């Protein structure tokens, strides 16, 4: 569906294919495409958060894409399905989104080696999962994780996201599999992380353990833990996050550095 010259909304699956993989409660997942009149050939795929129960699609999706566009960067917001007992569904949808972006890179004037991934909260967990699992041409070139859920370990995790993704009594193998800090390797893309010390929902230890895993594997990494700002500020103008302008400047600087 053509919304305007710069915004496409694309289904992630054909109707017949989706009918074979969807549950009765699923809506078609989508890729919202935000191109820019000032193409830098850079692009960021964005995963909104929502605790694997819903999506903060406005403040952690659309608003992010529009801001990236203003700075000459194409953006793609993924409207992924909730797991609802199916642990692999969100990353399956994100993988399909990357397949669509890569298949259309030429048409959309993108450099296929300058496409990163940005995730917020539980969307940060999904983004981190993709950073450590996607391979080949689908591997993101860099990561941006904002107050991300990283670990499924009980003493660190966000319990609401953990329950919605892997259930009330997951096996130890499942906990380790979905604790993304355990999956970091030497080929994990360079990643920057942002968190607040006073985050009441997702402990900053989530970002810390991922950052430590990146360093252990000699992956280029950067982390900012602000003294206050709590959780969920996203791209809400006027949100009670005193470092918002600094955060935005840092994100743009990071993207530019990764694409040199």
UniProtKB/TrEMBL annotation:
Coiled coil spans: none
SUPFAM superfamilies assigned: alpha/beta-Hydrolases (SSF53474)
Peptidase S9 prolyl oligopeptidase catalytic domain segment(s): 89-234
Keywords in alphabetical order: Hydrolase
TM spans (from-to): none
InterPro entries: AB_hydrolase_fold, GDXG_lipolytic_enzyme, Peptidase_S9_cat
KW Repeat (keyword) present: no
GO molecular function: hydrolase activity
Official protein name in the record: Prolyl oligopeptidase family protein
Organism of provenance: Bacteroides stercorirosoris
